[in-house]
UniProtKB/TrEMBL annotation:
This is Nitrite transporter. It is a multi-pass membrane protein. SUPFAM superfamilies: MFS general substrate transporter. The chain crosses the membrane at residues 12-31, 51-70, 82-100, 106-126, 138-163, 169-190, 211-236, 242-261, 273-294, 300-320, 332-352, 364-385.
Length: 403
């Protein structure tokens, strides 16, 4: 990592953004690691399990648009404070009153969506402090908060056995309160934040075809990452008969791998260009998702295949957000919301389709194969736009960053 990176920007805000993002993502996917135990107590079908773990992903996706607008209107720090307080209140109510039905799980999932919307706050909060040549690295570090999904997988199933799964919602309040205090003390809004935009200016962004391309690209990389993170505990339990705790350990290993390489993906994109990095990552992800669709017989082989796919998706996440600030520097707030929303929609599709695939066909093959096909479509899309991007907004005459 370049020495000049650590001399730029505002490190307390960068790491406050990471912590806020990390613990928000921990509770965003909390229903996934608890799904085996919740489903057993509430007698849920495979399709209901799939929709339960996918609901926070979908609501988080939609709320990212609202949070993106809020970031531009009242600045990132205040927007993040509002989101954190809503999530803490929802978990407190769930803990004190209990979750007694499938409908209750869906309602809690809706409010946990505010934790997923942290993406639209944490990234602009960090991004606005850094120059173009360091965007990939800065957003890779802040975006490594994806690792919070691994914390949920690592600890939630064991805590559920020890204290009951409903009490896990109360235990989650402890790290969330710590993150809130750190955020209030250390996070600061950048002094050169762009002025708030009108609604018509937000709509105007959607008229730009590049916005739609970025939304599609992220729906595959982040959609694949969070969809798998939400579903892997169920997958390892169903496919290999693992206990909820051991399935959680497998899931944590996969998610940690995909999260920790996000900064590497951003840094690699800074060095060789986001388009080149993304192209390779999509091809690798498509290959391993296709292999996984056949259900490797040995659990170690299955774990290795999932880790490989998550590594590619995680690096792809960093590469996408090396490109977005280059193209939409002045609209980074709303673009983070829109692109993040698309990523969440991709995750909702993958998580829910895996549940329906299992219920209808008895396996996860169709859901995984279709998503591998989407990764190949992303490669085709990148190939179609790379010449235009490199000769317009990504040319050496316009930016010092590699595209």
């Amino acid at each position: 990592m370049q020495k000049s990176f650590w001399q730029a920007g505002h490190k307390p805000t960068l790491f406050s953004s990471f912590l806020y993002f990390d613990l928000s993502f921990m509770v965003w996917v909390l229903l996934g690691p608890l799904a085996v135990q919740i489903a057993a107590d509430l007698q849920l079908t495979p399709a209901q399990k799939g929709l339960m773990v996918a609901t926070p992903v979908l609501t988080g996706a939609l709320l990212r648009i609202a949070m993106g607008v809020l970031v531009d209107q009242i600045k990132p720090k205040k927007a993040g404070l509002i989101g954190q307080l809503i999530v803490i209140a929802a978990l407190l109510v769930a803990w004190l009153h209990g979750i007694h039905s499938y409908q209750h799980t869906l309602l809690l999932g809706v409010f946990l969506g505010f934790a997923g919307a942290a993406f639209a706050v944490a990234l602009p909060l960090a991004s606005r402090w850094y120059p173009p040549e360091h965007q990939g690295t800065a957003l890779g570090i802040a975006g490594a908060g994806n690792s919070g999904t691994a914390l949920a997988a690592l600890f939630a199933p064991g805590l559920a056995i020890a204290y009951g799964w409903n009490n896990v919602f109360g235990l989650a309040l402890i790290p969330l309160a710590f993150a809130l205090v750190v955020y209030l003390i250390f996070a600061k809004d950048a002094p050169d934040a762009p002025a708030a935009k009108s609604i018509s200016q937000y709509v105007a962004v959607l008229k730009d075809r590049d916005a739609w391309w970025f939304m599609f690209f992220y729906s595959v990389t982040f959609g694949g990452f969070v969809g798998m993170a939400s579903s892997l505990t169920i997958y390892f339990h169903d496919q290999y008969g693992l206990s909820p705790v051991h399935a959680g350990y497998f899931t944590a290993a996969c998610v940690f791998a995909g999260s920790l390489v996000r900064p590497l993906g951003g840094n690699l994109a800074d060095r060789i260009g986001g388009i080149r990095t993304l192209t390779v990552m999509y091809i690798v992800a498509a290959f391993f998702l296709f292999v996984l669709s056949f259900g490797p017989a040995q659990q170690v082989a299955g774990l290795a295949v999932v880790i490989a796919a998550m590594l590619a998706l995680g690096m792809g996440n960093g590469a996408v957000f090396q490109l977005v600030p280059q193209r939409f520097r002045k609209e980074i707030g709303v673009m983070t919301g829109l692109v993040g929303m698309a990523g969440g929609v991709g995750g909702f599709y993958l998580a829910s389709s895996l549940g329906y695939s299992k219920q209808v066909t008895g396996s996860y093959q169709i859901g995984l194969t279709v998503f591998a096909g989407l990764a190949i479509l992303a490669v085709i899309g990148l190939t179609s736009v790379k010449k235009r991007w490199r000769t317009t907004w990504g040319s050496a005459a316009v930016t010092s960053a590699k595209v």
